[in-house]
């Protein structure tokens, strides 16, 4: 675990209607007494405004799951970083492996979305991670560091952002790397951040994501350079998500 406050982020993906607002309310109530943790929930964009009302005055932050690089224009179906901020978001997940795989998002596109998020005053959480084939062929560090270098615009040095290491093969599968494997990648990411940004590269938290659950969170969060967690499935139920927050 690193020295600054841990950052725990829930990614609801394509889940959640108005009925889910009760879970968000419970999470907001549950994190009030957790001083050494920053917590954010990223519901579908359709819930952001209502969630912002429900959690008003709490220390829970809200986030989007993607944004378009442009502020506005002829981009049917897309949402800009400014729109997310207007709806109540403070953070945004970018470059998630599901988007890299399903929508062909490249490092260059992710970097332009990171610039957009910074322009709108959002804290981007940039996801990186290797496939199982890449891990088995010994390429995990090269792939992940390449994604970090390619997905971060230079102006990020002057802003708050986080990196999330999410091995693709661990997302939604119940599989997790060993703590040594997680630490090896997190140390490589930290070293890449220092190479890119100098001393400013020491600041961004490096989150781990991929099948984080209440029963493995404490062990994972102990890891060197593990500054928090990005949680998918286990963030949908307030009880499970709060147990992960409580493991910090
Ligand atoms: C994710 O999608 O970012 C994620 C980590 O999912 P899960 O926790 O369900 O593996």
How would you characterize this protein structure?
The protein has 248 residues and is α/β, with parallel strands linked by helices. It has a single domain (6-246), classed as TIM Barrel, CATH 3.20.20. The protein has helices at 21-31, 48-54, 81-87, 97-102, 107-119, 132-136, 140-151, 179-197, 217-221, 238-246; strands at 6-11, 37-42, 60-64, 91-94, 123-128, 162-165, 206-209, 228-231. An eight-stranded parallel β-barrel has the order 1-2-3-4-5-6-7-8, surrounded by seven helices. Strand 3 (60-64), helix 3 and strand 4 form a beta-alpha-beta unit. It binds phosphoenolpyruvate.
Count of helical regions: 10
- Ligands in the structure? phosphoenolpyruvate
Under the CATH scheme, the architecture is: Alpha-Beta Barrel
Named CATH topology: TIM Barrel
Strand content: 15-25%
Count of discrete structural domains? 1
Shape, per Cα inertia axes: globular
Q: Which strand order spans the largest sheet, edge to edge or round the barrel? A: 1-2-3-4-5-6-7-8
Distance between the termini: 9 Å
Give, in order, the helices and strands.
EHEHEHEHHEHHEHEHEH
CATH level 1 name: Alpha Beta
* Mean pLDDT across all amino acids: 97
What would you give as the CATH superfamily?
A: Aldolase class I
Q: In which range does the helix fraction lie?
A: 25-40%
> Which structural class should the secondary elements be placed in?
alpha/beta
How many strands? 8
Compute the CA-based radius of gyration.
17 Å
Uncertain stretches: none
Largest sheet: 8 strands, parallel, barrel
């Amino acid at each position: 675990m690193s020295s600054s406050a841990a950052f725990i982020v829930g990614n609801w993906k394509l889940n959640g209607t108005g009925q889910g607002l009760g879970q968000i309310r419970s999470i907001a109530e549950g994190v009030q007494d957790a001083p050494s943790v920053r917590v954010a929930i990223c519901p579908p964009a359709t819930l952001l405004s209502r969630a912002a009302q429900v959690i008003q005055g709490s220390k829970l932050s809200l986030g989007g799951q993607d944004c378009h690089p442009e502020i506005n224009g002829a981009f049917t179906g897309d949402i800009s970083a400014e729109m997310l901020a207007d709806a109540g978001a403070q953070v945004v997940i970018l470059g998630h492996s599901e988007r890299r795989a399903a929508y062909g998002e490249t490092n260059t596109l992710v970097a332009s979305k990171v610039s957009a998020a910074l322009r709108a005053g959002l804290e981007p959480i940039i996801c990186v991670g290797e496939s199982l084939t890449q891990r088995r062929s010994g390429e995990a560090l090269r792939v992940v560091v390449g994604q970090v270098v390619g997905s971060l615009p230079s102006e990020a040095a002057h802003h708050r952002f986080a990196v999330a290491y999410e091995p693709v093969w661990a997302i939604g599968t119940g599989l997790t790397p060993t703590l040594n494997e997680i630490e090896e990648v997190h140390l490589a990411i930290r070293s890449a951040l220092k190479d890119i940004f100098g001393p400013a590269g020491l600041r961004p938290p490096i989150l781990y994501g991929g099948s984080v659950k209440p029963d493995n969170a404490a062990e994972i969060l102990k890891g060197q350079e593990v500054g928090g967690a990005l949680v998918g499935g286990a963030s949908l139920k307030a009880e499970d998500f709060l147990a992960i927050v409580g493991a910090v």
